[in-house]
TrEMBL record:
Protein known as: DUF4352 domain-containing protein
UniProt lineage: Bacteria, Bacillati, Actinomycetota, Actinomycetes, Micrococcales
Keyword annotations: Signal
Region annotation Disordered: where it falls in the sequence: 33-66
Signal peptide span: 1-29
Biased composition (Low complexity): 43-66
Residue spans of biased composition, Pro residues class: 33-42
Coiled coil (UniProt feature): none
Cross-referenced InterPro entries: TAT_signal
Bilayer-spanning residue ranges: none
Organism superkingdom: Bacteria
Organism: Agrococcus terreus
Length: 197
């Protein structure tokens, strides 16, 4: 497995933070492009089902998928390559800790994945977002204080049925899922999936 030095990732993070600081001061110049080692991934728009939460079976937890079964392979250009699929969007997922705030509810993006190269976790490599039926975008990062069963935060290099929990207002349905490369965006295009109601 090819491991890119942590220095490249640290330099990318410093460049991103520096650009954000300049933007806040109103002095943002055009930022330099981050180096990439692979061509950009095309934006994908497909449909994923919205389902009721289901308890994973033991085979779902322990049996890795066969090679080639993943819908997407994303190279962030900085040493990490993940292959993954979004399998469903579940309403009211089972939780280990935490509850939705009053007037809101949890939905879970269900994912299967395999780390092809690198050493950064899935949740470190990707932003997981839900576009609601109200047109607003809701971020998995806003719910890191709660823990779902099979939470994506604890997923290893190969996983099935991991949950990324997102909090939505009670009257808002998930309309789209966006999986965005944290370090590769915007050169690495978003994976965009419509949610079937």
């Amino acid at each position: 497995m090819n491991h890119t030095s942590p220095t490249r990732r640290a330099l990318a993070a410093v460049a991103i933070l520096g650009a954000a600081a300049l933007a806040l001061s109103g002095c943002l110049a055009s930022p330099p492009a981050l180096p990439t080692e692979a061509p950009p991934q095309p934006t994908e728009t497909q449909a994923v089902p919205e389902t009721e939460a289901a308890e994973p079976t033991e085979s779902q937890e322990t049996t890795p998928p066969a090679a080639g079964e993943y819908a997407y392979t994303v190279d962030d250009g900085l040493g990490d390559i993940w292959s993954f699929s979004v399998t469903s969007v579940d309403d009211d997922p089972p939780m280990e800790s935490g509850e939705p705030e009053p007037g809101t509810r949890f939905v879970a993006i269900r994912l299967d994945g395999d780390h092809d190269e690198g050493d950064v976790s899935f949740h470190g490599c990707f932003e997981m977002l839900v576009v609601g039926s109200d047109g607003e975008t809701y971020d998995w990062a806003d719910t890191v204080a709660v823990t779902a069963e099979d939470d994506i935060f604890y997923a290893g290099d190969t996983f099935q049925g991991a949950r990324a929990v997102v909090q939505l207002p009670e009257d808002v349905d998930p309309a789209q899922i966006i999986i965005r490369s944290t370090y590769g965006s915007p050169e690495v295009e978003d994976i965009v999936l419509d949610v079937e109601q």
